[in-house]
From TrEMBL:
Principal place of residence: membrane
Annotated localization: Cell membrane
Species of provenance: Coprococcus comes
One GO CC annotation: plasma membrane
Name of this chain's protein: Polysaccharide export protein
InterPro entries listed in its UniProt record: Bact_polysacc_biosynth/exp, LPS_length_determ_N
Topology class, membrane: Multi-pass membrane protein
Lineage: Bacteria, Bacillati, Bacillota, Clostridia, Lachnospirales
Amino acid sequence: MNELKQLEAQRDDEIEIDLGEIFHLLLNKLWVIILCFIVGGVIGFSGTKLFLTPKYSASSMIYILTKTTSVTSLADIQMGSQLTADFEILATSRPVIEEVIEKLKLKYSYDELVAMIQTDNQSDTRILRFTVIDENAKEAKAIANELAEVTAERVAYVMSSDKPKIVEEAVVPKKASSPNTMKNTIMGALAVAFLAIGIIVIKYLVNDTVQNEDDIKKYLGLHMLAAIPTEKRESI
């Protein structure tokens, strides 16, 4: 039992020594890791600027309850919440989307325009928001406003009710919503830095050659009597 405990203790010591060596190895290669971090950041930043097209998002909102629907009872409020789901489906229905395409004279197909539209209903509200993501900021604003108008008209026709009110019209976005240059730069920097760390550690782990007198003592259990330097000294 004592021998087994000694072997386990020795194994634990070796693991601790290995981890310590890896730490010192990474510390010695810190300049390589920092360089790779910088290179990765440059790649992420350049790739974002050169290969990713900026996209803009514009949003409009409509209130789903009309004059014919009161909010004086719980039943009316629950009905308003149910109407939200109906409005979301109507907003991306083919008649609505095709009318938006026709009025704005867009070159998108039905599927292409639907893919650019996001509908969102914030919890505990009866307001439906339409968000359009487009490469053209002015076009995103125009589509969002026209979508809200056509959806409201379609809802009034289908439900035989008053036309829902538009709460907020979209404006031309000043900044692109995507891509996130800062995020991509940081992700690129971290990815290349971690790749460098992985390569350094793997090269260390697979290298089983004896490097110095400490390795001889550690792996062979032998003590060095003398060491012959391999560096050439200049003659005086």
